[in-house]
Amino acid sequence: MTDRQRYDYIIVGGGSAGCALANRLSADPGTSVLVLEAGRPDWIWDIFIHMPAALTMVIGNPLYDWRYESEPEPYMNGRRVSHGRGKVLGGSSSINGMIFQRGNPLDLQRWAADPGMETWDYAHCLPYFKKMENCLAGGDDWRGDSGPLALERGPATNPLFGAFLEAAQQAGHPLTDDVNGYQQEGFARFDRNISRGRRLSAARAYYHPVKSRPNLTVQCLSLVHRVLFTGKRAVGVQYSRPGTGPRTVYGGEVILSGGAVNTPQLLQLSGVGNAEELRPLGVDVVHHLPGVGENLQDHLEVYVQHACTQPISYNPALKLRNRPLIGLQWIFGKRGPAATNHFEAGGFVRSNADVAYPNLMFHFLPIAVRYDGTPVPAEHGYQVHIGPMYSDARGSVKIKSANPKQAPALRFNYLSTDQDRREWVEAIHTAREILSQPAFDAFNGGEISPGPGVGTDEEILDWVARDAETAYHPSCTAKMGIDEMSVVDPETMRVHGVEGLRVVDASAMPYVTNGNIYAPVMMLAEKSADLILGNTPLAPADADFYRHERQPS
Asked: Which residue in 135, 152, 205, 282 is a FRET match for 178, CA 20 to 30 A apart?
């Protein structure tokens, strides 16, 4: 079957970046836009998507999650690490933890230091962060207050949050007014993508307000098999829907927004990648581009969990007998334990004196639970999520065959470098130091995980290898730049060596940022929309940002 209609832009992927692009590119009524999303719609009645606390019910659930797994990780006892990716309109923003973190301004300075990346520094990116934000706490030189992404500051009223913030200070770490503002380093209440007790995904923020535009078509349950080329020009895509054979649709430009896994997968299926690896799989090579699927980066994390001696944690909310009432509170009032993501506070610190800016991130929860909803063997508990932000381990995404329905091979190489292992040991020591401060004396019922049997550096690394999980931040597999391993032109977002094909998603990041990557991805999409449309870029900002003064040794 062939779709005869031609679109100006075909966006492959209705996830975070895809929804933002759909909004911005269709603003001109004379421009036609088609979005092909492989997952299903984010139906308004699906409470598991829209209820903030229900994230443990969607991650790992095949109705919402592609449920990828890594290849056996050689430095983690051969474990396959689960990797959730959103299988629904809105992508991973419809199943994530709803934490909004821009990263440190110096992350963007690092991006801009690479050849050709000069316009991706903090000054050029800050206006796009502000453009997308609607900070309910108000805007200023660093924050926006009129964008589509409503941002709510976590209330952090549970006494355990107060103990955590006080303990951080007792351990020698500062507080900061806003980790997304002038000073990221320190501890504070976190911003989150929750509005009036509901998850505010990219689909809800960007697509649904404009879905009635006649020039915008969003088609779910549409798996793209490959990009179609005439010579080296992309002219359309081939895709399928359930119960149908291949279809084709044509466009002036094709924009890949499938994320750090699916974008390199689709490029390789389409003949753009390492020719020596594609030909043995029966893929006709369109353009040899060896950087496709390389440079994979992610954040790994563990939970340091404690029992709580006072009945003030949210652990009872996990009990089956309590869930109906909690659900009714949310359905009829958008309130109660189900109306929060529980990631209401945390912070960023440096693990040693050699790093110039924070390389560790903390999320604190007044509950002890795993992402899959598994509670701890304690009536009440609390935990921090902790992990290094700048591992120098690099992995890859590689197709295994020419079958678009076969998941690619994901190799992360976690814990494979000296720096990675050193910072992991520092991370656990830093977390334990904070959780052992006097501020927790009234609540501390003892460490549950990893527990007193894990003390030496070797025991810590063994525990991390056994227990660590992804923080769900895969990125950088089709990086911007102009070196031989770059995939995307940073001035146009076009794929090097071909025409009519662009990439706009987390795969285009050259380096992972510190913190959750949803906010940087949305900024990248906002900025890319101007580049694609040929708009005059927003003027660089002149707002300064905090730099730690390193003491001479």
From this structure: 205
Q: pLDDT tens digit string along 173-231?
A: 999 999 999 999 999 999 999 999 999 999 999 999 999 999 999 999 999 999 999 99
Query: What are 472's strand-pairing partners?
Result: none
How far apart are the C-alpha atoms of 66 and 71, rounded to whole Å?
15
CATH code reported for the domain at 1-149+194-298+394-407+474-536: 3.50.50.60
DSSP tally for the chain: helices H, then strands E: 13, 26
Measured CA to CA, the distance from residue 209 to residue 94 in angstroms comes to: 16
- Report the sign of the C-alpha dihedral through residues 475, 479, 480, 481, in that order: positive
CB-based contacts of 550, cutoff 8 Å, min separation 6: 353, 356
CB 256 within 8 A of CB 498: no
* Chain centroid to CA 326: 28
Is residue 135 a contact partner of residue 145, using CB atoms and an 8 Å limit? yes
d(CA 24, CA 210): 10
Is the backbone of residue 165 left (phi > 0), alpha (psi -120 to 50) or beta? alpha
Catalytic positions, written as ranges = 473
The structure tokens 């913030």 sit at 165
Predicted TM-score of the model (pTM):
0.96
Pairing of strands 82-83, 68-69: antiparallel
404-437 pLDDT, tens per residue?
Answer: 999 999 999 999 999 999 999 999 999 999 999 9
> Is 87 in contact with 15 (CB distance < 8 Å)?
no
The residue count for the chain: 553
Q: Select from 3.10.20.90, 3.40.50.2300, 3.30.410.40, 1.10.10.10 the CATH code of 155-189+300-388+415-467.
A: 3.30.410.40
